[in-house]
Each structure stands twice: as C-alpha cells, then as structure tokens.
Amino acid sequence: MATPLLEIENLHAGVCDKEIIKGFNLTINEGEVHAIMGPNGAGKSTLSNVLCGKAGYEVTAGSVRFKGKDLLRMSPEERAREGVFLCMQYPVEIPGVPTTAFLKHSVNAVRKHHNLLELDTMEFIKMVREEGKKLGIDGEMIKRPLNVGFSGGEKKRLETLQMSILKPALSILDEADSGLDIDALKVVAEGVNGLRDGQRSMLVITHYQRLLNYVVPDFVHVYADGRIVKSGTKELALELEEKGYAEFVREK
Amino acid sequence: MGGLVQQQDFDAQAPWLSALRNAGLQAFEKQGFPTARTEAWKYTKPRALNVDDYVLSVAGGKTEKEEIPFDCYSFYFNNGVFDGNVPELPDGVEVMSLAQAAQTDFAQDYLGQAADVADKPFAALNQYYLSSGVCVHILPFVQLDKPLLFINHTLAGETNLLMNLRNLIVVENGAQAELVEYFHYTGTVKSRYLTNIVNEVFLAPDSVLKHYKVQAEAFKAGHIALTAVNAEKNAFYKSLTLQTGADIARNETHVKLLSEQAGAEVDAAYQMNGWATIDTTTDIEHLAPCTHSEQLVKGVVGGEAKGVFQGKIHIAPHAVKTEGRQLHKALLLSDKAEVDAKPELEIFADDVKCSHGAASGELDEEQLFYMQSRGIGRETAKQILIDAYLEELIAKVEDENIRKWIKLKIKTDNL
Amino acid sequence: MQKNKPEIADESGDKYKYGFVTDIDADTVPKGLNEDIIRLISAKKGEPDWLLEFRLKAFEHWQTMEEPTWAKLAYDKIGYQDLCYYSAPKQKVAPTSLEEVDKELLDTYEKLGIPLKEQEVLAGVVAVDAVFDSVSVATTYRAKLAEKGVIFCSISEAVKEYPDLVKKYLGSVVPYTDNFFACLNSAVFTDGSFVYIPQGVKCPMELSTYFRINAKNTGQFERTLIVADDESYVSYLEGCTAPQRDENQLHAAIVEIVVMKDAEVKYSTVQNWYPGDKDGKGGVYNFVTKRAACRGANSKISWTQVETGSAVTWKYPSCILQGDNSVGEFYSVAITNNHQQADTGTKMIHIGRNTTSKIISKGISAGFSNQTYRGLVKVSPSAVGVRNYSQCDSLLIGSNCGSHTVPYIENRNKTAVIEHEATTSKISDEQLFYCQQRGIGEEEAVSLIVNGFCKEVMQHLPMEFAIEAAKLINISLEGSVG
After folding, report:
1. pLDDT-derived band of residue C277, with 50, 70 and 90 as boundaries?
2. Domain annotation covers residue B287
3. Are the Cβ atoms of C433 and A55 closer than 8 angstroms?
4. Closest Cα to residue B196, out of B276, B117, B114, B284?
5. Whole-complex ipTM
6. Given this model, what pLDDT does residue C4 score?
7. Second CATH level (architecture) for the domain A32-44+77-251
C-alpha cells in the first residue's frame, strides 16, 4: 500500500500550559478530501496552526507524518515547500509589499526546493495572469500591497490563487467561507474544485455545512473538545446542519 | 521674606527625616534653578517663580467650608497647610497629617521613594521642606465608598506665599479609592504665590486609584505639581487633570509600572488665555512586561497664552508585550496663542506596541458657519465647539457627579 | 585688527617661501588644529582672502563652542587636536591589494554585484583615476551641462571661477555659528560640490558626486552648495551604495541649498559609510549639517535619505520655508544594526504663508543598535495657513536594540494644521508566519516586510538608486534574524 499523504497519530498540543488538541488521529490519502466540522472553540484553528508550524503552539505528544516525513520537525517554510498549504481565515496585511512580488518570492522558493528552475518575471506574470483569470482576479488587484485594503472576498480569492499556483499536495482550508457572500463563495469553491485532480488532497475545516455544498468531501469528521468524535461521509455534514453540535459537545 | 530656599531647622527631627530633607536641598542646589538650556524646561520658562519676596506659609488660617456637589470625605488645606481635621472615615482607611506620620516607620518606608528629585528641582525643594500634607493609607481589599477630596484654598493677599505640600497615598493590595484634588483661591487676583506640591502614590498589587484634579489658581500664581506613582502587579492608576489657572503651571505625572499587568491612564485638559503658560508633562515608565498605558491630553489656548505638552513613554529592556499610547491635541483660539509639544517614545524592547500622535489647529470655520447659519451666535457657537472638544476627555470621568463638577470648572466665558 | 591683517598674510607667505607648504605636499601636516593649519589649507588651495577670513572667523568661534551632548548618542570623546585636517592620512594605511581588505567588506561588494575594478577603488586599493578617466567623464558631463548654463564643479574650482556666486551664498543657509560641527567644517572644509542652476533651467540629468563611486576624494570635511535660481529644477544624488572603507573616524559635512522662486530641488542621499565591525569597533562618526532655504514663493525642497552606514550618525536635513507657498519634504529610512547609533530627523521651519511640509520617517533598529528620530516642526506667528503632516514609524528587530522618537512641535499660529503620528512595533508574528506558510524563509521574509515598510520612502529615490538601496537594506539587516 502506498504511504498515506498525512498521518496524524495521537496528537496533543496547546498554548502555554493549556491543552487544546487532546489525542487527535487522522489519515489522509492522496486525492482525498476530508472535512473537519466542529463547534466554535473546539480548537479547529489550533489544529491548522499546529500542522503548519505557527510559533506559540506546543506539541506535547503524538506524531504527524507528511509523505512519510516527520512534519513537526520542519520549519513553517519547509512544510510549505514540501506541499502543505494553509488557506487562512484572516490573511494578514503586509503594507508596502506588492502582491506580485510576494507571489514570485513564494513560487520560486517552492520551485527551488523541488529543484526546479526559478521562473523569470515574464514567465511568472504569464502564469499568474492565466490562473488569476479563472478566479476573476484582475491585474490591478495583484499590483496592490499584499492584502492591504482587500475586501473579504478579494482576500479569499487571493488565497485560492496562491493555492493554484503553488500546487500543494495538501491544502488546509481554514473557515474558507467566512466573510464571503454567495457569489464570492462560488468563485472560491470553483477554484478549489479546479484543483481536485485525484492526486491533491484537502482538509476543509469549517463550522458550517454551507461550503461543503460546493466542495463536496469524501469524508466528514466531527471535531469536538480536541479530538474527532465521529467520522462518516458527506451525509454526516447534513445531519450536523440539522441537529447542530449539541449532541457531541454533551458527549464529553 | 526670601527666595525659594529659606532657612529650616530640622535637626530635632528623626535622623532619617532630616537626612531626607538635606538630600532634597542638595539635589536642588546641584541642579540649580532651571535655565533656558534645561531640556525639561525648554518650553515652560519658570523664571518668574525665582524671586526673593516669598513668605513661607506656615499657618493655614480659618477653614471655610465649600459647597461640593458630590458625596465625599473632605480635607481642607488653607494656604498650603492641612487644617488637621480628619473627617469620620470608614474602617480600613487611615489618614493623618504629614507631621504625625513623620513619627512613624510607615512614613519612613514611603516618603521620598516614588518622587525622584535628581532631575526635578521643584520636587527637590519640596523634599527639603516636607512641612505640610497628609498621609493616606487604604488597607488591603478596602473599597472606599466615597472619594477623598483635598480642597486647597489659598487666601491670596499682598504677600507672595510659598507653599510646599507633600501628600502620601498608599493603597494596599486589592484596595480601591478615588481622590479629588481642588486648587482654588480667593482674594487678590494678582498675588504671585507659588504652590509646589508633590503627591507620592504607592499602588500595591491589584489596587486601583482614580485621581481627579482641578487646578484653578490665581492668574499671577505659580503651580508646580508632581504626582509620582509606583504601580505594582496588576495595579491601575487613572487620572484626569483639568488646569485653567495660574501664570506658570506645570502638572507633571511620573508613573512607574513596576510589575506585570500594571497600567495607567493619564489624561489631562488645559484651557486658558491671558499670558499664562500651562504645562502638562508626563513620564510613563514601563519597567516590566505586559504593562499598558494610555494618555489623552487636550488643550484650548486663547489670548497670548502658551500650552505645553511633554509626554514620554519609556519602555525598559525586556518589558515586552507592552502597550503605550499617547495623543495630544490642541486648539488655538487667537493669533498670539502658542502650543508646544514634545511627545517622546523611548523604547528598548522589541515586542511592544507604542504610538503617539499630536495635532494642533483652530476651530473649524465650516462648523462655526453652519451653526451661525442656524441662528446661533458666533460666541455661543465657539463655546459649543470647545465644550464638545473637551467632552471626549471629561466623559472619561466615571462618576457622574464628579464629572458634572469638573465640567463646571471649565471656563469658556472669557475665551 | 585692520592693521594686523597684512602681517598675517605676510607671515603665511613667508612660511610658504620657506617650504612649510611644500612639507604638506609630502603629506606631513602635523596633527591638530590651529590658525596656522587653517592658513595652510587656504594657501594650499590658493583661496582668496575673504575665504581665509571666513575660515578664521569660524575657527575663532569654534573655540568658544562646546560639542553638543543632547543627542542620544554615546561615543568616545573626539580628540580634535589628534586629527589631521589636511591631506589624507588614509593613504598611509591603505591596503595594497584586495587580499588585505576585510573579507566582510568584499562579501558585501559581491552581493551588490560590484565589478572588481570598482571594488578596488571603494576599498581604497587604487585611486579613482586608475579605473576611470575621471577627467574625461567630468568633461563630457560638463559640456552637456554648460549648454544649459548649469554649473557643476568642485567647490574649490567654484571659489576660483565663480567667486561672486560662492561669496554670496556660502554660509548663507548654514552660518558658521550654527553648531559645533558646522563651525568646524567652516574652518577646515577641504572640498565638495558646487551647483548653480540658472533661471528657468530644468537640469537635463541627475547630478551626482559619485558616478556610482566617489569621483573625488572629498575627505572628512565636505562642503556642498547648491543654488537653484528662479523656476529651475535639479535632482541631486549624493552617496554610494557600497560601503566605503574609510579610516577617517570623523566626518563633518555641510550641505547648503538655496531654492529661489518657483524652483525645485530634490536631494537624495544613500549613506553607507563603514559602520564598524560586529562588536562596534571602528566605523565613521557622521556629523552632518544639511539645510535648504526655500527663499522664493512656490519653491520646493525634497530630502530623501537612506541611512545604513556609519557607527554614529548625527544628521537633521532641514527646510526653512520662507517663500509663500513653499514646500518642504523629508523622506527617510534609517537602518541600524550591530552597535550602530543614529540620531537623525529633520526640521521644518515655517515662516512664509501657506507653506506645507511632510515628514515620513522609517527607522529600523536591529542587533545592539540605538536609533532616535528627532524632528522639529516650527510655525512662526507670521506663517498663516501652514500644513504639516509627520509620520514616524519604527521597527525593532531583536530584543537588544532601542528605538526612540522625539518630535518637537512648536506652533505659534492658530491657522496652522499640524498632525504628527508615530508608531513603534516589531515585525508581527502573523506577517512572518504568513510568508513562511507560503514557503518564504525567515530571513527573506524579514527583508520583504522591511522593504515594504520602507516603500513610501524608497519610491522617492531615483529608480537605479532605489534598486541598489533596497539591496543595501537587505545586506544591512543580515544576521539580525534568528
């Protein structure tokens, strides 16, 4: 059997002395789309931050293997270069840094890691234009400083654009639908679906079922109090939408 | 009659006290009177205070009760001398005169510990005299039900009184109190008396002091005040000062945030005309991680008056996760008014968020015109705008009755 | 006094006769500063009497002055009598080949992509002339400029060829009494540049003292004078993007700019003198007085500076806005690392009606360095309708550095609208994580964010300069992360 793309075993992690993730297990194979649904405060964002190596979180037990390698020992940029992409809920603004310049740095850092030639400016611009067009991103938007003054929809579209040009093996979508109206949601979902090619995998983290109407998962997990409490297929999401999380929160 | 330094006989006092007073004199003599080159007095020229016809105020005179529109524990200081009457206080609050306190170990532990005199000539002078004032001791976990009110009344006459006051306020663990200071006068408007006051405030962990002050001294008088605060872990010092009087006034607040989570909110308003110089100087020292401070200072300057703001936020090495904010705004109402500001950030730690802002301008003609076009007289319109300008500050006073009282002390009639 | 003068002149003439000046040619000027040395400098340069007098008056005044101590700077006392005020002692200690030069310095050249030949000049191994025919470069430029009537030459030449212009403007913006270092410069300045743009002329090219590298060894006490006549325009570049090896500890330069009616001057500086080593040993003390007077109505001066070098910087490019509607601008990026110290900022003196000024200052402190923004905005009673906006942002990298902001705001006119804002923070963890999450390494992420932070200032630099300055910022911050 092929090595799973991502294997999380008995993960315990938290902030300062407070444990937030309490024995988390999950395996994602190549090409699979998993959804993690959970109530507010379940530690969903902690999970995505821990997987991407954000400072300030402490892993106290367990292991995470990505393509068979120990993910937890890598720096955040190494994880990104290996192919873990976090589509952020609130992408940060970086004043004065043009979006294109940032994207070029990012793309070339990843290419270099994979021993590919760095793109020159012309090649790069061409690629960004093509990919951008699919997401309704015009040239004007990416000339502006990174995320500065972008609307919620623009920020999410830019995240999706980065996902499509970096071609990560695993995309983690953290509340990708928050702050989006229905039209913007559709554009983002289309972009995400366009990346589903049977090889790339996704982990969709969300509170609401709404996004899953557009990005249909292969598996759905209910996440409460730091661990997965129930797993199923896409029908589970609908069930949750109907009944809410109360049952699972009570279970603890 | 004499100058700022007059002969004192304190040999008979406890050795620690006479040593402290001597040290005050030495510190003053070492610094000398501020000159044009003294950076801390760059904008406020105190020269007019350096005269030799001062009469040291030793006797207070008769106390005249004031009508005060809020419930409080009142203490009267006449001509800079505490009248000795301590109102009936709830349990857990101890107040005595400085002279009485000077006999105790308590005073020895605190006196001179917060107010640095090495770079503050007037505080040094004050330490030399240590003649009058009160010591307030709020015991642990006491929540004082009513504010303490210090009424400083000067009966301004022909002689120029030199008044030195020193108050000690110690708020113990978890205790909370409010203090209101009021400086006013009756008598000769042109009296050139000098009030030189130092408050030392010690806030034990988790304690809170809210400190309001109204300075409405006579128009030729001098008013030099220092409030030095030492705030321990999670203690909070909040102050609001309104200055409308005196010829030369400086209200200086020096807060040391000594331990984590200590915080300060130091606000001030000044409003004057004539030839006055009114100075607001603050120095907030963040000496520990996770401390926070906020300052809003607003001034309205008319006539040929000068408003001065010097504000410093200091962040010591390793005092990370600190936040310090400061904003100074001034309105100039006349052609000869002046505003000088020196907001300053001095930062030695990286993980901090600090900002300051300063702005100055005049009343908005558009707004004035708008009101005039609705039939409001120009002078009334100006007053409405000035009130609105200061309202942002006054609104920060939580107690409604105190807020109303402070509002009454803003004089907009003669701008 | 009058009676004495010819005697003094004779005396110096005598000395010349007896070969004292010849000794100078052999680079054996005694250390120290006194009237004789100043006379020698002046005689050596063949200066007219009025200039010698100017120097002597400055020297006399200097002796009554004290070195300023108000800046937040700590450095060892300078032994003014131990310095050599003429000619270059550096030639004695100059390396003879690149092998003898600091490896770190060479690494920096490498990163900036500077050709080997130029590296040799920068490091002081060979003279400029060995690489470029500096005479011919200068002549080509001059011919082109002369067509337009623009004068661009060394100040020594200008003293000889355009004495009236120099006499009229020298010291008119920065009088010799101004401050300790300006006064010293007035007494002993060796050389510098002179620019005159005649009425109605837009200077056809950007003028620069360096065509990448310093065309002339102007030494420790440089003096620049720029006069822009009515309706003229000039953009002037000063500096060198590569760090210059320099054994001179003290640099006390003066830049004076006069801007007449409807004229505009843009003055850009990239300062990258040797900052000393990692432990704070060595490095240049850069004590500079720069000031522009907007004398005419509608005149404009714009200062842009990128300061990354020097061990100690003391510098406040200022604008005196005399003409009605005149405009002053100050755009600054200052980066300090290791043990560098900088106390820098600007002064905006509003005198004319409806004058406006803008200050954008970006300070970055790293390592064990300390940096202060110090600025003055002053509105005199006569200045109706003044507008000023100041923004001073500081970024701290690492926990051992300091960043200070000391603005002085003095308003004596009610119609003035003055706004000042300042912030201090570190690079946010969120920004850093975002970059890393997209595969960008920490050091590269820091440089991206810092360049973004400086953008507002950098965009005021001429294009080629801006690109090199951006590289320089990255180099200056190397080793400050992690």
Report:
1. confident
2. yes
3. yes
4. B117
5. 0.86
6. 39
7. 3-Layer(aba) Sandwich (3.40)
